[in-house]
Specification:
With about 650 residues, the chain is of the alpha+beta class. It is built from 21 helices and 23 strands. The chain folds into four domains: about 25-225, Heat Shock Protein 90, CATH 3.30.565.10; about 230-390, Ribosomal Protein S5, domain 2 (2-Layer Sandwich), CATH 3.30.230; about 400-540 and about 605-615, Rossmann fold, CATH 3.40.50.670; about 540-575. A hairpin with a 6-residue loop joins strand 7 and strand 8.
């Protein structure tokens, strides 16, 4: 066989070509590998890493107070009353342990299970990464009757460890300011941080977390404290709902070194809200602990229903969906050596945990239902009602279930499909109205862009059961066109498009339709959100032109900037305000909203399933009062009522 001819020599590829990044240089070189991004997510992750250290002290039983302060300059201080990071010299590294923890990757007490039985922190990158990505960081350690102080800049020590005074307490205080050389966003969001801190307080009962924001005038302060732990968490989640039983069902036990903590309560709603955590990490992709919980819940409720005779007249058993309808549950397991997998490393993979959770739920839930017959009957009656509705919806589901090819599922007649058959290359636009749909069909690239016009506003699935949802013509059209099915029939690899783009008018009705569609995807096809398949198109609001020059503006500021750029007499400048997509010509819609080389589309992500569910409950649920309060609290942020 002929050997391929290669250029002579080594092309200057020798030992000098191998780059060695020392200390924390690797973190600064590739920050996204350690904190996820250099935008908002990564910025807030810095706070989470420092707070996680304090939470680990609480898990170990040495800390019950944590204070987090955002200062006026957007620096952050995190303080706790734990043991304090050790300050003595490390036996092999010959530097103070606190300096080692702050300047060396993977250096810390969490690797020694005699120091911490379990620990949080999603990636375990530690506070050294925060140090590397901070313009400055200072630490005060109160330990052994002395306060010890040390300072750093961009991961480098600028002030050696010194004693600055006597103290009678213990703990660690870290103040840091994110580095503007690294982060594109430098302002912390109050709600993002407060939501996470509230969650941590629920997950770690009797730990008081104080959150202060000194950027406000006057400064604000919130205290998060949950004496009841997960019971209070579920009560808070259900605060806008009607519950079937007054108190959440809860139990906490340890089996084979795995601590299982559960609180659950049924409501009169139709959606299930199960949130799982491992060592304080929100495992929104689920995992073995969730699998064990679901299996045990279905088995236990069926067994109880059989025992009390609730299924004697029925020719079916209760499915998993039936027994989870209206359920709000928080499951928190603490595992010594958690193994994470999945797209975002938030799916628990420890096989032994499934069996442990299953045993705990089987035993404790069965006992509770036996000892509380009225609660058991209420839960079972709701599950039986759900099962009847499921049976009634079977025929409707068959219309939209996608089997091999398109068996029993004819594509909607109004769908203008694309010619390519590789889902990774294809995208579908969900367009508001037939008029805009017609323009989109004319302006699209037929090879990879499909158009599905939606007439009117779809059903609000937050207030509907599956039979009613599948009875909605527009929803059936969407499910059939996308091809992945819903609920237990959902199969991500059968999705016919890897981009599902919501394209609605830039007005109040368009925003409402967009919200209804997002509610549908969140409640019925959350896997599409988790896979990053859902997008929102951004059509322009204005066309600014003079002669042959034209610009498209997405807000008032851009419009005014283009007017200045064009210049000349204002009378000669044409300003067109688009009230709807149907007002655009096909070429305008293409080059502003549909051309991949020029358009702006936003990917919809699921950062915090707990907060997302809470928001949909408030905005789309049956209770009016939470919506009224939301409007009152946020009305001041509205700038355009017709945008």
């Amino acid at each position: 066989m002929a050997r391929k001819t290669r250029p002579s020599g080594n092309g200057d590829y020798d030992a000098r070509s191998i780059t060695v990044l020392k200390g924390l240089e690797a973190v600064r070189k590739r920050p996204g590998m350690y904190v996820g991004s250099t935008s908002e997510n990564g910025l807030h992750h810095l706070v989470y890493e420092v707070v996680d250290n304090s939470i680990d002290e609480a898990l170990a039983g040495f800390c019950d107070q944590i204070e987090v302060t955002v200062h006026a300059d957007n620096s952050v201080t995190v303080s706790d009353n734990g043991r304090g990071i050790p300050v003595d010299l490390h036996p092999t590294e010959k530097i103070p342990a606190v300096e080692l923890a702050l300047t060396v990757l993977h250096a810390g007490g969490k690797f020694d299970k005699s120091s911490y039985k379990v620990s949080g922190g999603l990636h375990g990158v530690g506070v050294s990464v925060v140090n590397a990505l901070s313009e400055y960081l200072e630490v005060n350690v109160d330990r052994d009757g002395q306060r010890h102080h040390m300072e750093f800049s961009r991961g480098q020590t600028t002030k050696q460890l010194s004693q600055t005074g006597k103290v009678s307490t213990s703990g660690t205080t870290i103040r840091f300011k994110p580095d503007p050389q690294i982060f594109t966003v430098l302002e912390f969001h109050y709600t993002t941080l407060s939501d996470r801190l509230r969650q941590l307080a629920f997950l770690n009962k009797n730990v008081r977390i104080t959150f202060r924001d000194e950027r406000k005038d006057p400064p604000s302060e919130d205290v998060f404290f949950a004496e009841g732990g997960l019971i209070e968490f579920v009560t808070w989640l259900n605060r806008t709902k009607k519950t079937l039983h007054p108190k959440p069902i809860s139990f906490s036990t340890t089996k084979d070194d795995v601590e299982v903590d559960v609180a659950m309560q049924y409501t009169d709603g139709y959606n299930e809200n199960i949130f799982t955590f491992v060592n304080n990490i929100n495992t929104h992709e689920g995992g073995t602990h969730l699998t064990g919980f679901k299996s045990a819940l279905t088995r236990t409720i069926n067994a109880t229903a059989q025992a009390i005779g609730s299924l004697k007249k029925e020719n079916f058993s209760l499915s998993g969906d039936d027994v989870r309808e209206g359920l709000t549950c928080v499951l928190h397991v603490k595992v010594k050596e958690p193994q994470f997998e999945g797209q975002t490393k938030t799916k628990l993979g420890n096989s032994e945990v499934e069996g442990i959770v299953k045993q705990v739920i089987n035993e404790h839930l069965a006992s509770y239902l036996e000892e509380n017959p009225p609660v058991a009957r209420g839960i079972i009656e709701k599950a039986v009602s759900a099962a009847r509705a499921r049976e009634a919806a079977r025929k409707a589901r068959d219309l939209v279930r996608k089997k091999s090819g398109l068996e029993n599922a004819v594509l909607p007649g109004k769908l203008a499909d694309c010619s390519l058959d590789d889902p990774a290359l294809c995208e579908i636009y969900l367009v508001e109205g037939d008029s805009a749909g017609g323009t989109a069909k004319q302006g699209r690239d037929r090879s990879f862009q499909a158009i599905l016009p939606l007439r009117g506003k779809i059903l609000n699935v937050e207030r509907a059961r599956i039979d009613k949802i599948l009875g909605n013509t527009e929803i059936r059209s969407m499910i059939t066109a996308i091809g992945s099915g819903i609920k237990e029939d959902f199969k991500l690899d059968e999705a016919r498009y890897h981009k599902v783009i919501i394209m609605t008018d830039a007005d109040v009705d368009g925003a409402h339709i967009r919200t209804l569609l997002l509610t549908f995807f969140f409640r019925q096809m959350p896997e599409l959100l988790e896979a990053g398949y859902i997008y929102i198109a951004q059509p322009p609001l204005y066309r600014v032109s003079k002669g042959k020059e034209e610009f498209y503006a997405f807000n008032d500021e851009e419009r005014d900037e283009y007017i200045k750029r064009i210049g000349g007499e204002p009378k000669r400048i044409m300003i067109q305000r688009y009230k709807g997509l149907g007002e655009m010509n096909q070429d305008q819609l293409w080059k502003t909203t549909m051309d991949p080389a020029a358009r702006t589309i936003f990917r919809v992500t699921l950062e915090d399933a707990v907060e997302a569910s809470n928001l949909f409950d408030e905005l789309m649920g049956d209770e009016v009062e939470p919506r009224r309060l939301f409007i009152e609290e946020n009305a001041r942020y509205v700038s355009h009522l017709d945008v």
